[in-house]
Structure formats: C-alpha cells, structure tokens
Amino acid sequence: MSDMVTATNLPTARHSVKVSEKNEKTLPIEAKSVVWNPTPEQLRQFASEMPNARNTEFGNLNVATRVVSRSKLSTFVATDTPEQHSDQTITRAEYARVAQLQNDYIKTRDMLVVEGYIGNDPQFRVPTRLVIEKANANIAAMQHILYYPATPEEFEHFEPQLTVIYTPNLKAEGYPDERLIAVDLENYTTRVFNSDYFGESKKGGLRMWNKLVYERGGLALHSGCKVIPVGNTKRVGLIVGLSGTGKTTTTFTKQNDSQPVQDDFCALMPGGKVYATENGCFAKTFGLNSNDEPTIYHACASQHAYLENVSQNDEGKIDYFDTSYTQNGRAVIRMQDIAGAADARELTKADFLLILNRNENIIPAVAKLEGPLAAAYFMLGETKGTSAGGAAEAGKSLRVPGTNPFFPLLHAFQGNRMLELMKDNPMDVYLMNTGAIGGDGKAEGSKKVKIQHSSAVVKAIAEGTIRWEKDPDFGYLVATEVPGIDDADYLQPKKMYERQGRLDEYNALVAKYNTDRREYLRKWKGLSDEIVNAI
Hints:
The protein is of the alpha/beta class. It is built from 13 helices and 34 strands.
C-alpha cells in the first residue's frame, strides 16, 4: 500500500492520552482521531471506501488482502522467561521498543475502536477491545460481528481485560516478512504489525483468552460444538481440529436436525461445562456449495456477511472454487444468520469429543480412543496442513498439540489438563480422518473420505450405533459396522491394504507412526507419564 510505514523510521514520543472526538472515553495511546464503537452501518460505509473492497452479488463486501493467512513465523510471546512457553519469544525490552514505535505511528493515524465480549455467559464473558486503523475498517467490521455485544450502559464504563492494537500498514523491520504479532500475556495486550489478514485480530483476542481459561481451571479448545438430538436426549459434541481440516464443516453438517453452537473456540471446564466465545463464525469458503454445506453457504450470502479473498468477477459473481488468488478464502458470518443455532448457555456438559486428522494413508474414517490414549492423541494433534496456516504448513504432515496453535503457554499443560478434565467428566473420544484412505484420494486404489462419510460417522457416534473391535497395531478401537457407510475400506484400512497387496507398506507405516509418536510425546517436558506411555 502507498501509506506503508516502517516502524524503525519513526521518531519516539512520550506515551500520552487523547480524548476521543466522539465522547469522553480515552485510549492509553494518542491518535490523530478515534471513532468509538461505530455502528454496523458506519463500519460498512468505512469498509466500502477501501480501494480493495468490492460489492458482491449478495450485496455484501469482499476484501482482497495483501496477507492471505496467519503469520505464525512472525508471532512472538513477550517474556523474560522463555522456558515457560513452547513457542518463540521476544524479551520484554524488545516488546517495549516495538510498542513505543506502534504508539508513535498511531499518533498519525485515524483509528477505530470496537469493544465487546468474548463469550456470552455473564459468569464467564471477557471484555475485549480492538484498536485498528480506519484504513482497514473491514477488520473492525468483522470483529464487531464476532464479539458478543455490550449494552450502551456497559460501554460507558467498559474496561477491557484483553486488548488488540492493530496497525496493518506499519512494517516491523527485522521480523519475518516485516510482520510482527507481539503477545504481551502479562498485560493481556497483543500488537499486530503489517498484516491486513483478519485472522490476526480474531486470534489475537482468543490467544490471550486461552491463558485466562487455563488459569480458571479449564482448557480452551480449538473446537466447534454442536448439539445432536437423539430421541428425547440431546448429545453435545466438541470437534477439535486445525483450520481447514473440516472443523467448521463437521460442526454445521446436519445430523438429526443438529444445532451448531460454536465453530472455532470453546472453553471446556471441570464437570464438562462448555462456554462459547464468538457471536459468529470465520468460515473457510473454498469449495463451498449449497448441497454439502447449505447452512454456511446461505449465511455467506447474507448482506451482513464480510468476505475476504474470495474470487469474484467484474459483475460481482462469487466463485468459491477458484483458488488463483488463494485457497484460503474466508467469510465472517453472524450467528443469527445461521439457521437453528443453539446457545451454549443452555448446555449442561459435553458428551463426546472428535479429534480431526486429515490423513492420507492408514487412519480409518473413525476410531475410538479410550483412557489415556485419548489424551495422547489429543496431544499429538496430527493432521495435514492447509492454506489456513500459510505456505509453511500447506500440504505438510503436522503435529500441533491439541490442534491448537494459539495456546500461549507450555504445550504439556494442554495434555495434562485434558487428562484431568477427562477423568473429572468422562466422555467418549474419537479420532476422525477427514482426508483419504490409501493415498491422497486421487491415486489409484485410494479413497477420499467425503463429507457424507464423516456425517454418517457423527450421526452414528451420537446414536451409539457403531460396532467396535480392538486394533492390534494402534490399540484404539476400529469399527466393524457404521450405519450409512457400506464400504469397509473406510473403517479398517489394514484389510484394504492387504487386499491391494500393500501389506508391507501398511506395516512400515505402523512402525513409523508408533515410533514417531512416542518420540514426539517424550519431547514435551512435564507431560504426564500416563499420556507418554499410552502409545
């Protein structure tokens, strides 16, 4: 962009306070101007003035960004005790330096402030604030949708517990791609430099919220949540998985008139209590169609939705299958535009947990995990990376503890807390492959796990109609029968490999997985021996 500024070229200035032109509320940063809590109509107007925003056939806006995915390699926790964090860090002194540079830059910029809550339960909601350049108003508009709203009376005395300060047009020299996401957990503030991708705003708040949930005795799960009616009961399911592995799709696909609750983050507390985070969804749009994912498709067609990096022609016609710009097209949609959505405040406890693994060889469409083995597979967090994680992850085999790349503390804490919560509130845990069996789905003899297969699995899990037997190679249970899946190759890959004359290949993969998994779990200092020895 023409107004890009380099942080290291800015003069230093005294930290000061300026009264907003809108009201008597103040920011702890001086800005050229501040618009406090603009209405959705104002945000839409500001966003429509952006040169990279276009109107779509649906009457909503589609913004093309410079940065098309999260910047993991540019994300650092600010601390002088790096041994207390599993991810990369910068010193407190370095954080103070870049914070001052950003504060100085903001003095020259028109800013927007959006406030609201992460979570809607009065006992658990967290007041959060986004401070963002007006030049990137779409980010403010999208975040406004995801925050649960505060009342006008609450705004008058709103004190944020979490703050995201976001300057998309300020470069951070010396950092990867001249971008920086600096996470100050001590003061619950995240500062974002030189990324105009909305995900950094959304995850900026949720990453810090992860720490709060852990301190309250629970665990933040990178998870969807849904309620599936079964007779006179309602089964509550959690779905954890890396972005792009089918988490949102699995959450919104209907079984027995199921109701989605959340699509991205939930808090799991002692006793199995589940808390919500967001009043909408940040959905991946690649391949979106009205037959497979009608709920998401129609919500994205709402005039209130905001699209990001979705292909469209000069007439505004949307093409969810064109990936010439990026495969990581996105949309922020409102919960009120999602038919039949349920409220997490009405849930009692979680009944089952699905761990998604987009695998392409010997993982069955579903396996049942019992005891510490469930916590071990949760800690393994295996999958194949997608475009949501950027070029560094796309197409590569990954292990991300808890499938949660946003947990800002030691990852061993995740596994240990999950084991504690499972003992406190036993729930059924399943491994689900959302990829393919025997290859990438295109190779001869391989079979893609389709949305219909996964939906049949989820329905059968909720209804308790799957028949199981022990798998001698991995120790989990594999299905002998799943209503709705007639092809046994999806249920027991070993027999498929054997029938195709590939048993040696299968056995080699078994040996590799078991060895690699044990080594991976052992590397996390402080991880419970029950988990480490489960594989």
